[in-house]
Every structure is written in C-alpha cells, then in structure tokens.
Write a structure and sequence with these properties.
This protein is an alpha+beta fold. It is built from 11 helices and 9 strands.
C-alpha cells in the first residue's frame, strides 16, 4: 500500500487537477475515491494495493476505457490465442468473403459501423477502436431511454448525498457518482447490432450543489455514458448469424480467423458528450 506521504501528494494533485475540466474531473474524482477504498470491487482493490502507479492507472482513466474505480466487466474468452492454429484455404476464402461483405453491408444495414468494425477485425492489428457513443444513443433511442432510467433511479439519492455535504460544509459541492456497468443488446438497430451485438455501459454523473439567487441550494446533474465491449467470437458450437448474400456464418468459423492469425480480436470503447439531466 502507498505511504501516507505519497497518498497525500496524490490526493492533492488529483484535487487540483479536478478543477481543470469536467471530463477529467469525473475520472480523477473516481480515482481519488479509489485511493480511499470507496465502492471498490476486489479487482480494483488489488490494483490500488500494489502501488501508486498501478492504483491510479492514469492512461486507462483518461482514455475513457472505464476508469479505475469500476473497471468494465471481463469479456468472454473469445477464440483463444491469436495465431495458435495453421490457417487453411477455407479460412483464407472466408476472410476474403467477409471483406466483400463488409464493403457491401452499409447498403443492407443502413450504416457504416458494422463494416468498419468487421474490416478492423480483418485488418489483424488488434488495436483498440473508438465507439461513437453519441451516435449509439441517437441511433438507438431504447439505449438512451435505458440510460435515462438508470440515472432517474439514482438521481434522488445522489442529490440527497450532495445536499447533505452542502449543508455540512456550507460550501458548493461537486460529487461524482456512477450507475455501474449495465448490459445492453443492440438489437434495435441492424448496423449497431452487427457492430457490437451486446455491450456494457456505465453512466457517470457529476452532481453539483450551489446556492441559488434566493440563498436556497440548487442541484444540477451532468452525465456521460461510457461504453465498453470486445469484438470477438467465442467459438462455441450452435451460435451463428444470418448474413445477407452469404447465408449462415457461425461464430466458430469467424473465431477461427483469429485463431488462425488471419484476423484479430480487439477492445472497443468510448463515452458520450456531457449531457444535463432534466429529470
């Protein structure tokens, strides 16, 4: 565990930096809570215990890939080790077919995200890919409604906690809260469904209390929706997708491209713009 001096320096730096920008403030406040062991899961507790640099995970925090307080849920094992089996002519043929499918798919699905993600998989780099979360929320109103429900379910408790702190200190308050990771299946939009399938999102909110013109406290909630997913195929029997013009494509066949070193699984993630809760 970090020394008291290191802990104090880290907390002071984080408190100062939190004044700079809303997004950075969101993430750094979550890290500061992590130092205090507030609302931590076992995985994050272990990271914080290791050392200060391991606990802060600044690169991960500032990239928007879930932060250090509540890491995204573990993804499934996918198709195993990349390049662990020899590719066959059938594998190479399937990769070429899926490349043609990706270039044609915007006509069928009404968008370009599924094509982009498939081509990135076939590019075989494994590099992380950004998701445009504002587009997700616009294209899938049910996802926006789901996020709204989660904020609504927590808003009263968040406000009460912030108001209690305001009354205790007599000073303006900014508190960072989060709903935790929720599962979402993108079945309502064909393009997003073929791009991400099922994913997880976490809504992170800043709850602010300031004195109003009449001296009474006023509360405001701003929030961002963070999304995390892994583009992979679990390789199990019996799972498949009907692909127009190509017929049934099984998860096992698609995952084989990763195992054969012809494509590579990758992480995806991003966050929405800052929004104001109107509930």
């Amino acid at each position: 565990m970090c020394s008291e001096a290191a802990h104090t320096r880290a907390e002071a730096a984080l408190t100062y930096a939190a004044e700079v920008d809303f997004h950075v403030a969101n993430e750094l406040e979550r890290v500061k809570k992590a130092i205090h062991y507030s609302v931590l899961d076992d995985k994050t507790k272990a990271a914080v215990r290791d050392d200060v640099s391991g606990g802060l995970l600044m690169g991960q925090v500032l990239s928007g890939r879930g932060g250090a307080l509540l890491p995204p849920p573990e993804s499934d094992s996918g198709s195993g080790e990349h390049g662990s089996v020899e590719p066959t002519d059938e594998d190479r043929k399937r990769k070429n077919l899926m490349g043609f499918y990706a270039m044609w798919s915007p006509v069928e699905f009404g968008g370009t995200v599924a094509a982009r993600n498939m081509l990135h998989y076939l590019s075989n780099t494994g590099e992380p890919l950004n998701l445009e979360v504002d587009d997700m929320l616009d294209d899938m109103p049910d996802m926006q409604a789901d996020a709204d429900r989660n904020v609504a379910a927590n808003a009263d408790a968040w406000k009460a906690q912030a108001l209690a702190e305001y009354e205790r200190t007599g000073k303006p308050v900014k508190m960072v809260q989060q709903t935790g990771w929720q599962g979402f299946n993108a079945t309502s939009d064909p393009d997003w469904y073929h791009a991400v399938g099922a994913c997880h999102y976490n809504t992170v909110a800043q709850v602010e209390v300031v004195p109003g013109p009449d001296g009474e406290p006023q509360t405001k909630i701003k929030y961002q929706v963070h999304v995390a997913d892994r583009y992979n195929w679990d390789g199990s029997e019996g799972k498949s997708t009907e692909v127009p013009q190509l017929g049934v494509v099984t998860d096992k066949d698609m995952g084989k491209l990763h195992a054969a070193g012809l494509a590579k699984e990758f992480d995806m993630g991003g966050q929405s713009s800052v929004r104001t809760w109107e509930g």
